[in-house]
Amino acid sequence: MREERDIIRQVKAAREDMQAADVFIGTYMPFIKAETAKFLRRPPVEGHDDELSIAMIAFHEAICGYSAARGAFLKYAAMLIKSRLIDYHRKEQRHSKVISLETPAGDDEEKSLGDTLSDGKDHSEEMTVREATRKEIEELTEQMKTFGVSLTDVADNCPKQERTLASCRKALNYAKENPEILEELLRTKRLPAAKLCQGSGVERKTMERHRKYMIALLLIYTNGYEIIRGHLKQVMKGVTER
To answer: DNA binding happens at which residues (predicted)?
Structure first.
């Protein structure tokens, strides 16, 4: 009971202070990795498994959305991590062109497509896509470092409300239509917040509050991050459809 009260105290502090949130998330990284491992049925590999990043974002979401009515914090966080990982995999399956190897082959429900393929070709396309995605994420991570931004920063700085996400999308669209905004970002290594706000109509406080998230968003549209852009378009499309 005392331990739970201490956790709740840390959650409240993390909700109010970004540095406290970083410390809290760092302290519970073993827990986050363990929950991710339960889902993957193997230990997650940092820098390789997107699921670990999804779990970290879900843990931060648990911090922001927790209340005593939800019961023990870690149980709530574990439930949210599992839910977000399931959502992620469903979206990946829905938006990818790779057909599940468990899909029945024709009228024979006892035989899957995987059974009809030769072992040497079963996962070649999937592995190629995963490797290309990994390389893009590595390149983006290195580029973000020159702006003083990490993937953890982006996860922590990601808008939680749909209205705010829609505002960020509005600012992104303005930048895409005005390449000089992206050029200034690369040249100065600073987010041209004033020009973005003036041109898109987004409030300045929204832009400043989610500065690191917006930097990552704009960087994705300055180079050849086609795979990441494809995923981003699906996320943004989901925001507008809600």
So the answer is: 193-212
- Answer yes or no: do 136 and 91 share one domain: no
How many Å apart are CA 197 and CA 171, to the nearest integer?
7
In whole angstroms, give the CA distance from residue 235 to residue 216.
15
Give dist(CA 143, CA 32) in Å, integer: 26
Residue with tokens 């500065």: 211
DSSP secondary structure code for residue 242 in this structure: -
List b or e across 101-114, with b for residues whose CB sees 16 or more CB atoms inside 10 angstroms.
eeeeeeeeeeeeee
Please enumerate in sequence order all residues whose Cβ is within 8 A of that of 218, keeping only pairs 6 or more positions apart, or say none: 172, 175, 181, 182, 185, 191
- Confirm whether 109 is domain-assigned: no
Could you tell me where the DSSP H helices lie in 99-225? 113-116, 124-145, 151-157, 162-177, 179-188, 193-200, 204-209, 211-220
Does some domain include residue 125?
no
pLDDT tens per residue, range 65-120:
888 888 889 999 999 999 888 888 877 666 554 444 444 444 444 544 455 444 44
